[in-house]
Amino acid sequence: MFGVTVRHFTQADIPVRTALLRESRFQANLTDFAVVAEDDALAAGQRRTIEQEHAVKRIFTLCGPNDQVLGFAWITSIDWRSQTCELSFGVLPQYRGGFGAIAVAAAHDYLRTELNMRVVINQVLEHNTMLHSAEALAAQQRVRCPYDSYTVGQWRTSYYWTTTEDDVRQHHERTETRRREIAERIRARRTV
Amino acid sequence: MTDPTLTDAAATSAVESTRTDIRRLDPAAAAAHLRAAAEAGRGFLGLDPVTQNDVLLAAELTRMRAQVFRAGDKLLGSVPNPDQPRQAFVAATCADPEPLRILLGFLDTRQRCSSFVAMVPDGAPSAAAFESCGFRQVGVLRDHRYQAGAYQDVVVYHAESGFVASAHSEDPCSA
Q1: Number of Cβ pairs closer than 8 Å across A and B?
Q2: A130/B contact by beta carbon, under 8 A
Q3: Contacts by A54-59, CB closer than 8 A, 24 or more apart
Q4: Which of A147, B17, B26, B71 could be stapled to B13 by a disulfide with Cβ–Cβ 3.0 to 4.6 Å?
Q5: Could you say which of A50, A112, A116 has the minimum Cβ distance to residue B53?
Q6: Which residue of chain A has the CA closest to B149?
Q7: A51 touches B at CB < 8 Å
Q8: Min CA distance, A135 vs chain B (Å)?
Q9: How far is A94 from chain B (nearest CA, A)?
Q10: Which pLDDT belongs to residue B175?
Q11: CB distance A113–B148 less than 8 Å?
């Protein structure tokens, strides 16, 4: 199992994230505002976030075991007093699949253990099944919002849900139970 | 560079005493070194490179009128207490007392500091440096910091300049 580290987004990361903002699936699944923005404007906006917007928005870089950039996570709608924020993320195309879910989990873990966020708001457009199956999305959504976003020529329905401390604890318990069950099955096979 | 006063933070990005290896860092360089210090940089002058990016660290150092010095790979810092101008909050990233003694000597003889306060995260190696330099523990701020998923205590140390001065016999920051 490899680790994903979360570090602060820097000026050196801007070209990579700008390219991601222009990627077709990113635009369909998150936002396509980058289509109508020039490179300089996109870079300026990201520099502004790095330099001035710490209280209201933060971008983080998700890195793999060799410090390679896997993608980015960013938080908005930050309410420091209520300890809540909305988390968004974009994984580079070559790392989607195996790395994506682990990278997202690392971002959640950072928000909870270092920024002391207690509730994280998630939003996924209904058609976006890169990290969540359609069934899983439908099961965990708490708010379904038709006409939430207009991307790449279509209105998109959005699902919203929150991740609380209880959710994280239950997830860890489920993971641990599953790990124990697998270990017991392997042990049982060896003794046969 | 031989500037013995080290009073103008904007004058130069790095100032070196001729008799020590302590180098003054500008806020941007200080932020980069704090990040490189990894775990030891957490809680330094109340800052945290894990939760604050370099720009924010530098802005906070500037706002606090902090002075940050580098001694090899160790960092030392001081911030004037706005309510008591003769008092400085001090910080270190290591257990070695020698660089700290140099900083305290500089603050005493060059900036007329009469007392020092250090707020050290519980368990931080720098506590040993403060104790070696004559600081005594005067209190504990329970659950004062949040880090790695838990609230942590912060230990408050205090020393008066005369007492600290007895720990070193010369002025290491003079030209």
Answers
A1: 24
A2: no
A3: A54/B52, A54/B53, A54/B55, A54/B56, A55/A80, A58/A8, A58/A9, A58/B53, A59/A8, A59/A9, A59/A17
A4: B26
A5: A50
A6: A113
A7: yes
A8: 32
A9: 27
A10: 31
A11: yes
Q: Using CA atoms, how far apart are residues A37 and B26, in angstroms rounded to an integer? A: 35
Mean pLDDT of chain A: 90
Q: Is the pTM of this model over 0.90?
A: no
**Pairwise CB contact (< 8 Å): A10 & B51:** no
Q: Tell me the percentage of chain A whose pLDDT exceeds 90.
A: 52
How much is the pLDDT for B40? 94
Buried b (16+ CB within 10 A) or exposed e, A20-33: bbeeeebbbbbbbe
B117 contacts B78 by C-beta, under 8 angstroms: no
Residue closest to A25 by CA, chosen among A131, A98, A102, A101: A131
d(CA A8, CA A135): 33
> B175 vs A186, which has greater pLDDT?
A186
CB B143 within 8 A of CB B101: no
Pairing type for strands A84-91 and B22-25 reads unpaired
Phi, psi of B53 (to 5 degrees): -80, 175
Query: Which pLDDT tens digit goes with each residue over A59-75?
Result: 999 999 999 999 999 99
Stretch A42-51: mean pLDDT: 96
Contact A54 B56 (CB under 8 A): yes
Confidence of residue B20 (pLDDT cuts 50, 70, 90): low
Residue A24 pLDDT level (bands cut at 50, 70, 90): confident
Q: Are A159 and A192 in contact (CB under 8 A)?
A: no
Please report which confidence band the pLDDT of residue A84 belongs to, taking 50, 70 and 90 as the band edges. Answer: very high
What mean pLDDT do residues A86-113 have? 89
What is the C-alpha end-to-end distance of chain B, expressed in Å? 9
With DSSP H G I counted as helix, E B as strand and the rest as coil, what are the percentages for chain A, rounded to 5?
45, 30, 25
